[in-house]
Amino acid sequence: MEATFKQIVAKIEAYDKIIIHRHQNPDPDALGSQGGLGEAIKHSFPNKQVRLVGGDVGDLDWLTPPEEVPDDFYQGALVIVTDTADTPRVSDARFDQGDFLIKIDHHPNDDAYGDYYYVDTAASSCSEIIVDLINHSANELSLDAEAARVLYAGIIGDTGRFLYPATSTHTFEVAAQLVSYDFDHSNVSQTLNEISLNQARLQAVVFARLDFDGHGAAHLVISQELLQQLKVRDDQVNSVVSTPGRLREVLLWSLYVEKPDGTYRVHFRSKGPVINEIAKAHHGGGHPLASGASATDLTEVKQIIAEMIAAGQAFEDGQA
């Protein structure tokens, strides 16, 4: 059922145990929306038991580290999932074991799971939605410096530091509200911007080996052999996903990261052509201009590359 902020806040008020999930392989927005909501509830309702659930967060453990939660804690608990479009991507399969389930998200609502859901695809980030939820709660929920810190990280992460089209005047208003709290926002930005020397070497490889079709589409296959050679973990590849977009000639691009089992994690990005329908056709999904998917082998990788090239050419023809 589609819910209002008022209905969501009423559920938060009604439960003594609250468990917040986010998606697998989390980015700053997943951790920011999860941690920001959790911190706001703890700050506003000190007697409630609030837990944050999910797997490894890689280099982002300075934002919101996950907590160990026993199975029996789910009994009689409210479960909230943030920034997660569909149930297969929820980190920790126990998300449906609570008493009541709420989805809060900004991706296309292709999987309308939950007893309640609130989805705003116009929002720059799920962290922006969480701030709106808090601001519309008639003081039942309130921010503190820690909530503001992680929510700000979520917003600048998902907007590419206010670069992407979903950034609105409201996004800037929310960001201004957050930086009024007592945390070092420049340090948050700097930490998110930092990469390791090995990641920098991978970035150089992306520029050097990027395959460009001449009509705006670019791609690169990143093998396990290369990752091991550069000593880069799978989760650290996220730092180079936006790299091809810095090239003036690139309109849309895809990176294919080989996993240890021989399958591929696919990252899609675009400056114009809609690419999430391609992602949906390959066990994925996401935003129109930023999505992810999976490929079982190099044959499927080649199929996706062909589809991306076709999407770029169709966009180019439509613009002519």
Automatic annotation (TrEMBL):
The keyword Hydrolase applies. It is an enzyme of class 3 (hydrolase). It comes from the Bacteria. Signal peptide: none annotated. Residues 17-155 form the DDH domain. Residues 229-309 form the DHHA1 domain. Keywords: Hydrolase. GO terms for molecular function: 3'(2'),5'-bisphosphate nucleotidase activity. Its EC number is 3.1.3.7. This is Bifunctional oligoribonuclease/PAP phosphatase NrnA.
